[in-house]
Every structure is written in C-alpha cells, then in structure tokens.
Fold this sequence. Notes:
The structure holds 3 protein chains of 3 kinds.
Chain A: H1 2-28, H2 33-55, H3 63-81, H4 89-112, H5 120-140, E1 150-151, H6 162-181, H7 185-193, H8 195-200, H9 205-231, E2 233-234, H10 241-254, H11 259-277, E3 289-291, H12 292-315, H13 320-346, H14 349-352, E4 355-357, H15 362-376, H16 389-404
Antiparallel strand pairs in A: 1-2, 3-4
Chain B: E1 9-20, E2 23-34, E3 38-42, H1 49-56, E4 64-69, E5 72-73, H2 79-85, E6 87-89, H3 102-110, H4 118-122, H5 126-145, H6 161-174, E7 179-183, H7 191-206, E8 211-215, H8 219-225, E9 228-233, E10 236-241, H9 243-247, H10 250-260
Parallel strand pairs in B: 3-8, 3-9, 6-7, 7-8
Antiparallel strand pairs in B: 1-2, 1-4, 4-5, 9-10
Chain C: E1 3-4, E2 7-8, H1 12-40, H2 47-67, H3 69-72, H4 81-107, H5 115-136, E3 156-162, H6 166-192, H7 196-223, E4 225-230, H8 231-253, H9 255-265, H10 267-272, H11 277-301, H12 313-326, H13 331-351, H14 362-376
Antiparallel strand pairs in C: 1-2, 3-4
Amino acid sequence: MKFWLVRLASLLLAVGFAFGLESVVGHQFPSIYRLVVLAGLYITLSVSLNLINGITGQFSIGHAAFYMVGAYSAGFVSKALFSHQPLVPQLWMIVMALFGACCAALTGLVVGLPSLRLRGDYLAIVTLGFGEILRIVTQNIGAIGGAYGMNVKPFGSPPQALWLVWLLAILCVAVCRNLLKTAHGLPFLSVREDEVASAAMGVKVPKTKVTAFVVGSAFAGAAGALLAHAETFISPDTFKMDVSFIILTMVVLGGTGSITGSVISAIALFAIPEWLRNLQDPVTKDPIQIPGPALVASIISVVIAVALFKAVQNRFHGSKPAKFGLYLAAIAAGFVCKLAFTPILAQAPGLAAKSFEASALRMVIFAATLIILMLIRPQGIFAHHEFSWSWVAKLFRRAPKEATA
Amino acid sequence: MSTTGEKPVVLSLEGATIQFGGLIAVNNATFELQQGDLFGLIGPNGAGKTTCFNLITGVYKPTSGTIRFQGKEIGGLTPAKIAQMGICRTFQNIRLFPALSVVENVVVGAFLRHRTTLGSAFAYLPSSIRETSALKKEAMDLLEVMDLADVAQARSADLPYGKQRRLEIARAMATRPDLILLDEPAAGMNPQEKEDLQVTVRRIRDDFQKTVLLIEHDMRFVMGLCERIFVLDHGEEIAQGPPEKIRNDPKVIEAYLGEAV
Amino acid sequence: MNLVAGLDFSILPQQLVNGLLLGSIYALIALGYTMVYGVLRLINFAHGEVFMLGSYAALFTSWLLGFSPEAVRGVDRPSTWVNLVVMLLVSMIVCGLIGVLIEFLAYRPMRNQPRIASLITAIGVSLFIQYAGGLFLPQSPPPAISEQVNPYRNEKVSIVLKPAGQEIVAQAADATKKAAIAEKAYDDAQKAGAPADKVEQLRNDAQIASNDASRLQTQVSSQTSGLVIPYGQLGMLITTMVLMAVLWFVVQKTKTGRAMRAVAHDFDSAALMGVNVGRIITITFMIGSALAGAGAMMYATVLRTPLSPFLGVQPGVKAFVAAVLGGIGNIPGAVLGGILMGIVETLVVWLDGLVPGLSGYKDAVAFVVLIAVLLFRPGGLLGSSKVEKV
Ligand SMILES: Nc1ncnc2c1ncn2[C@@H]1O[C@H](COP(=O)(O)OP(=O)(O)OP(=O)(O)O)[C@@H](O)[C@H]1O
Ligand SMILES: [Mg+2]
C-alpha cells in the first residue's frame, strides 16, 4: 500500500515537474524554449546510449541513426495524415512517440544482431556504418524530402512539446535506474564484464545484448519523434555522424555506466556550445570579438596549464590541501602565460589584425573542453558512481569535519 | 533409483573428440560420472583437460562423440542452456566480473532462476524488488558458507587471489547445479588454503549433494580428495580408476615423468 | 555508343584506373589507421585531420614555390617535377610532426586509461583541428592547388586496348577530308564574290559535311576502348607503390620494424623485453601520419580536390572502413581494403547507368561492403579473428 502511494506520488511529481518546466520556460524564458527541449532530448539520447554502451558494454557509436529513424517515421506519418490541425496535438504526439520508438526498436534489433558476432571496435564501425547507410538512404528518397529535409507541420504552429520531452527523459532515466536497482540489471552488467563467464552462469548473452539495443534505440526513436514534431523540420544533416559522436562523448564524459553522469554531461555538453553561440556584449549587444593574439595565447596557455595540472596529478603524492594548492598554481600559471604571451603574439603581423567571433569559437572550445576533461578525469566525471541521497548526506557530513580538523 | 543398486549416471562422455585445425585436443574421451561422485581429471600441461570442460559446458561443440547429462544429449547446446540444465563451472584463469561487487557476482549466478519479467524490473514493481532481495539473501548465505561474507560489498577485482577462486566456486554454486566443474581450484593457493579448499569441496559434495568434477595439478590434493580419477595425455585417455590404481600406473608415471625430465 | 543495358563499357577501364587512384589514397590513409591501431589498439579519429593538414601543407608549399593565385594569374609559369617532390616531402614531414605532436599531447597521457577514454580524446582532437582549422585556414573560396604546379598537366600516356573497326575509321577519315574540301570551296566562293545564293548553298554543304565528319569521329572514339592516363596520375601510382615498398621494408627488415611488430603483438611483453615502447609509438605515429601526408598531397594535386578544413572527414572515414575491411592492424590488409574501397566506389558511379540514382549511394556502399564482409569474416579480409581461449 505504502509502496503504491510512493509510486503514485513520484509519478505525479514527474508529471508536475514537466508541466512546471513547460510553463516556467514557456512564459518566462521563451527565448530558450527550444534549447530546453533539445537538452531534454539529449538527456534521453545519452542515457539510452549508456544502456547499450556503458551498461551492456556493446560499443555502439551510431546512436544518431535510431534518433533519425524515430524522427523520420513519426514525421512522415504525421505529414501524410494531417495537412492541418488534427485532434488533440499532445495526445497525437504521444502516439507518434510510441510509433517512432517501435520503428527505432526494429532498427535496433537489426543493428543489434551483428553484435552477436562482432566485438569491440568491429561492432563500433558496423553501428557507425549502419547509421551512415540509413542517413544516405534517407538523403536519396525524394518522398521524405531527400537531402533537403522534410517539413512536419501537422499542427500548423509548433506544439508545446517541452513537457513531453522532459517526461520522456525522466522515463528513460527511471527505466535505466530501475534496471540497475533490480537483479535484472546484473546480466547486462555481467555481459559487459565477461561474456564467456556470463554464458557459463546461464545468462542468455545474445538476448541480453539485443534487448539492450532494442530498448536503447526505442528511447532514441521516441526522442526523434518528439524532435520531428517540436522542430517541425528535420533533415538528414540533423543526424550526422558528429551527432553520434557527441552522444557518445556525453556518455563517456559522464562516466561510462553512470546514469547520473550521462544526464549531467548531456546538459553540460549541450549547454556549452549554445551558451557560446549566444554570447554577446552586454552593452552593445554585438557578438563578442576575440582578438587573434589573445586567442592563440589562450590556446598555448591552456596546453601549458593542463600539462602542469596533469603533472601534479601524476607525480605529487603529498597531502590533499597541498595538492589542491598545486592545482590552483597550475591554473594560475596558465593565466600568467596567457598574459605574457598576448603582447608577444601581438607582434606577429598576420595575427594582430585578426579577430574572431565568440560564436565561431564554440566548437573549438567544445572540443578543447572534451580533451581537457578526458585528460584530467579519464574515468568520466562521475566514474561509475550514481547520485544518491546518502552520497549527498555523506558530502555534507564530511565537510564540517574537515573544516574543524 | 537404478535397479542394480548403483547410483544414477549424471554425466557420460562417449568418444568425445574435438579437433582444432590439425590438433586433436581431446580424442575419444569416454567416462561416466555417477550421482555424488568426486571425480578428478588430471594430466600434464596441454593434455586437453580444460578443453574437456569446454566440451561439457558447451563452449566448443564436439567434432564427434556424444556427451549426455542426466540422459539428455548436450553436445553442441549453448553454454547458457547447459548452465540452466544444471552444469556449472569455474575457470582456470579466473573470470569474475571484475567491476561488480562480490555479492553481485554471486547474484548473477543465482539469477538464472529468476521468475519476474524484464518489464517488471523496468517498472520497478514490488515483485521484482522482492525477487532481487531474495536472490541477494541467497547469495549472502552462500558467501557465508564460502567464508566470504565479510567482503561481500568489495569489488571482486580487489580480492586476493585465493578469495577470488573461492568466489568463483560460490558463483557457480549459486546456479544450484547438479554437476559442478572446477578447473584447477587450488592453483596459486598456499598449503593452508588448499587444505581449507579440500574441506569446502567435500562439503559441496556431502552437504549440498553435488557431483563434482575437478581438474588439478597438485597430486596430493587430487589423491586425497577424489574417489575416481581420469588421466589424459595428448588428448587421449591413459588411465582411469581409483587413486591407488592411478598412483601405480606405469603409463601415468611415464606421462608425468616424461614431462618433468 | 556502345551501350549494354545502359552501361558504357568503353569507359570501364578508365573508371577502374580512377578507382585505383582513389583507392591508393585511401590505402595510404588506411595504413596510418592500421599501424596506430596495431600498436595502441586506438582508433585514431584525428588521422583524417592530419590528412587535411597535409593537403594544406602542400597548398602553402606550392604558394611558397611561386604558384599562389596572385603569382600565377595570367602567367604561364613553367614548373618542374622538383616542385612536386618538394611539396610531397613537405607534406609528409609536416604531417609526421603533427602526428607525433598529437600523440605526445593527447594520447600519451591516456596510455594507461580505459580505451574508450582515448577514443573520446581522439574525437576531441579531431573536432578541435577541424574547427580550429576553420578559424585559421583559408577556406572561402575553397583554395585549390594551382594546375600550373603540375609540369605534366598536358601530357598523357594513352593505351589502346581495342581499336575501332577499320571500316568506320576509313569512313571517318573520308568524311573529314570531304568536310575540309567543302569548307575550302565555301571559303573560295566567298572570297571570289560569288552570288549570294551560291555561297549560301556552299555554306550549307560545308556544314553538313562537317557534321558528318564529327559524328563519325565520335563513333570511332567510342568504339576504341582504352585508357588515357595523365603522367601526373602515373607518377602518383608509382609514388604510392614506392612508399608502400619502403614501409614494407621498414616493418619487415629493420630493427625498428621488428620492435614495432613486437609491440603490436603484445604491448606489455614487448615493454618487458626492453623495447622502448614510447619511441616505437612515436615512430609509428610519424610513419603513419607521413603516409597520410603523401596521400593528402596527391589528393590535392593529382585529383584536384578543393581544400577545406573538413576535407579529411570523408576520406578519413572511408580509409578507416578500408582498414577494418582488410583486418585492422594488418598492413597488407589496409592496402587491399583501400584499393577495394576506391574501386567499388567508382564502380558504383559507373553502374549509375544501369540503376539511375545509384551514384547517390556512393558513400554508403563502403559501409555495405564492410558489413557484408564482417558478417562472414568477423576479423576482416586478411585479419585473423582471434578466438578467445577459455
Ligand atoms: N580454441 C583453441 N584453438 C586451438 N587450439 C586450442 C584451443 N583451445 C585449446 N587448444 C589447444 O588444445 C590443447 C589442450 O589445451 P587445454 O587447455 O585443454 O590443456 P590443459 O590440459 O587444460 O592444460 P593446462 O594444464 O596447461 O591447463 C593445447 O595444445 C591448446 O593449445
Ligand atoms: Mg587447463
């Protein structure tokens, strides 16, 4: 009885949260509405890839393919059935999300089958290949817009999709967390750890792998279906290889196998470039310009700072506060380098005159962040840990103790 | 059960043979295990002992010959199917699930008896929660028996070697097999640990009523423990029988000395 | 036209040669992937970007040699093959250094980390070079290496495989002669101030004769099957073969090569046996990247590809597919896979005549072939799929 009450409460909480987010963002910050939608989609994508990659250990790097299958299948049906405003749009979107999920799950089944024969990097390249094949096929089919893309406008104006997107994200996180909390998660983990030993313990290895692919791709497909309806326009370019790589990066950067990590790094990795894209001078509202010498000096000093940081990490075995101090020193050294190099580089004739818009730098900064994070924390931000309240409690309990010591 | 008063046959190999390219790793192996046997499989390095295990547990499909388990032909079935039928094993080079905790390792073994569906786990239904705690409890009990309860929450990769070996046995036991295969369970153990292991293996047979087939290089260990022994050399049987007979068999002595010299 | 079911067989040999050329570029890149994978078990995603930088290195060298767009505008600068060799060497050296630098800065610190972490770093490096290149490298309009650098741009070897029938050749020669006579008659009449209608008549005759002649000429050339290979492409094939031979020699016959093979076979044991693993990895990156540099130079000059910071992505992916196809870690496999990939790709374009629209799938075919091969030979064509011993 109590169990069901808690369950009901958490369901209500989830729905309430989604609606709350919808209304807050929709009314207070309409300018970032689209970004919040995309962030929710990326959470779903990275958590669902984590199920395949991190939890089951199947090295899949073509996740964008499932996203695309969901988007195109749902988008095509909506486009074919409605020329304008149908029944309740939200309800229809839920139906379409289910439909997209089914189509993607079927694709996942097909892509998952090679995983029975192939391992590691060979599987990776095959999943990547499937993704590329599907994208190129889509590009060549005129009926769904070919390379130009497809307009999905069943509802005239874009519908309020944010709450659905976030509900899907919550559902995806919940499903993966539940799996790991029950004994059913163990075969998935054991397949990752050792297939031969798993099979010897009676784990149906092929079924487990394919299940991971099917479930993971179903979530990606649902995300795709929502994307098609929220954006009202999709094109094969939306689902390029880079997107697969970014999703993979989210998983690894968060810590392979950690759901919390996937969520956090999905938000962070998505937010960094978007924040840079919109960076503008607070007064003039012009895009911020970065002079060439400063940029090159920054790149050099970041390299130096990271090298120092890494050296401290590996070589220094003193007390914690001392190590922390050295870390700060490494970062400070980076800043000093930047200040020192900027005037020197300003002497270089070609460079001094150049300047770059901050938004043009966003992918560079994104890539640099990625490399630096991996160098400093290769096991990912959360490693294989999960967020839990006891963990938070421990953090707080420890903090005052150290302060007094 | 049988009319002759003999115990029922659990496992029987008849002419089991496997060939890797030109190499015949096991040739025409024929032996029988009865319920409650403590059976030893010995032979010099590379004799084909582990390959024999691999044939029985479905890792390889025999090139010819039959393997029967409780009267059913199992040659060529998948390892998972064979494990579900009631044969479980340990590995010569320990194959635990390194990143999982000790108790999780054992639950993987126990999991083959699960009843709830995957869907109920996704939805976190009470049934799957109950099942999870039941399996955990079972696993803890086994760890108690194997004297590993104190490290239940440790990462299995962090255990010392001897404990890893015992954990492998615990994990195999968790599948509740009728026949358990142990591949060099005493390798790398010190004399005290070996003695403890002998006691444990006997307990597995006596208290848990399992049939045990084990590979071991330590002659003292095998002779002191097993009631019947099968000797392989270059994939072929060279002797079969009780320890006293094996000890004095000229062919066995030659095989071992021939290797040592 | 010689059409069978929509296919033009007369251009088939030419297409095969084109495929071989493209394939040898893929092979050069694939070698880098395969060698690095061999020693480090790392998919070096930044390899395509090294290739891209190599093509820019060739471009800048050609500008330094005096073939910048401003310098050559309207001037027919003579070029010698020395220019090409200089560009090739500079590309190779620059790429070799960049490869070593990337290894030192990004991969070396990840040596003892999980493989997936190195992989993500590789993706990061690849994105970084692409987009940083977008900031600093000239890209709009896409620069291309001036045709003038190529001293052989007009010289070709032609190999006739099957000449056209004598009858039609004779007819064509006849028609050409007649056309010349008719032309002359018209010219003469015009000069002599013949009556307008007469001139008009002659003009029409000349027109018809010349149409006839050109129609027959086309027929002759379409019935002649054979190849025309520019000297540049021939040079490229030879260069590729020489480079591969050198690589083979280094790997098989030198001490360094033996150490490389040892590291590829078993990293840890090689280290224990006193192989300087760090040095071998550096050398591997250097050689692999230099080969990509050579490929890049030829891609930009002989195949006349316009440059962009994203130039390396497609060939990079295809070369990687080629490496996997041949069996990743296997050097002859990479060459075989690369050439196969190039030929399959051009054949698909050629088959467009049979199945209209097929050429749109040109980039997908690489993957289709790969998947088909891997399903039957999970270790690639020449690779051995290691069975895990239990
Ligand atoms: N998958 C395989 N492919 C090829 N040869 C194999 C394979 N598995 C085993 N062998 C070979 O079969 C022979 C028997 O090996 P096996 O591992 O069964 O020996 P063993 O009796 O267990 O020896 P040890 O006492 O050293 O464990 C060996 O020569 C081995 O190399
Ligand atoms: Mg063995």
